[in-house]
Amino acid sequence: MNKKKSSTLVMSILVTGIIFSGCSSPAKKEEADQKKIEKSQEEVAEAQRDLQTAKQEADATVQQVNADDKITKENEAWVAFRAESIAKIHNNEVRITELRDKMKSSGKTMDKMYAKKIDKLEERNNELRKEIEQYQEKPSNWESFKAEWNHDMDELGNAFKDLVTDNKK
Predict the structure, then answer these.
(1) Which of 33, 58, 71, 92 fits as disulfide partner to 125, beta carbons 3.0 to 4.6 Å?
(2) What is the mean pLDDT of residues 7-36?
């Protein structure tokens, strides 16, 4: 029977130990829970700071990309405008050469005034060529330069038309 008593005693001790070890004081449990809550709050605050930093970096990147796109678009517009302008100038040079050839081959003695008008057209065309070649692209005044240059080119085109019309009369 001794064995029975000793095994009952061992079992009782084990059960008692398990019961006492499983029970912790409510203050300790509350303190542990509070520490977990504080740690979670710190992690949330850190994640919010990281998120805010990431948003700021993304905004800065987007702004830089947009600025780069704007510069690229302006550069593309400038290159296209310059190419069109040089083509117009070249066409004017061809027209001037044709007018001079026509003047020489017509057999008529063209008056000096007609020759002077051709010279003025050529001079203005050369001035426009220099303007377009020497223009330093600046986004702030690019649109005003373009408008003024196109206006001058239109005037030159009208002068060609007037010269041809005057010649036919």
Answers:
(1) 92
(2) 70
Looking at residue 46, the DSSP 8-state letter turns out to be H
Task: For 56-115, write each residue's pLDDT tens digit.
Answer: 776 776 676 666 666 677 777 888 888 888 888 899 888 888 888 877 776 566 667 788
**Which of these, 118, 121, 122, 126, lies nearest to 100 by C-alpha position?**
118
Q: How many CA atoms lie within 13 A of 83 on its CB side?
A: 6
Provide the 3-class DSSP secondary structure of residue 107: coil
Nearest partner of 100 among 86, 117, 87, 85, judged by Cα: 117
How distant is the alpha carbon of residue 155 from its chain centre?
Answer: 35
Rounded Cα–Cα distance for residues 112 and 95 (Å): 19
Amino acid at 41: Q
Residue 39: both structure tokens together? 């740690």
